[in-house]
From TrEMBL:
Transmembrane segments: none annotated. PANTHER family: VACUOLAR SORTING PROTEIN VPS29. This is Phosphoesterase. One of its GO terms (molecular function) is metal ion binding. Its cofactor is a divalent metal cation. Residues 1-141 form the Calcineurin-like phosphoesterase domain.
Amino acid sequence: MRIIVVSDTHGDTQFRQVLDAYQADAIFHAGDSELDYEAKVMQGMYRIRGNNDRDVRYETELSVTLGGKTIFITHGHLYDIYNGLQRLDYRAQEVDADIVLFGHTHQLGAEKVGDILYLNPGSFTRPRGGHPATFAILDVRIDGSVKVTYRTPKGIIVHEVIFK
């Protein structure tokens, strides 16, 4: 199963063309699209509300089960993500998440804490911390491992890692 994760697109509408080229089973947007909930580029993906999204039709978090994995997505600002994963980890355990997707910091990162994989795809348009603009592709393998590939909007691989 292939999942694409993007966040912090901040009004950009071209990101969808880039993501659609990778033929994913699901696309997740971790907030701060700054687009109307009904915007064409936002259709057909799991999407949540970030601190810069004004359309209240977005949920602040979602929990979805795909391919036997429970995926929890939130923007991160409601869980004080700048100060670590602890508050987000409590919520992830409450919803029995296998994978947690979030944004807000505009910095890519992936780590496994216990049995839960936490992933921030970085920002598609406004990266911080010296990182390039990125999105993430998660390939969930039959053995349960997850290959995470970070790519730039031009398709250049920035980083790859496998979590078992």
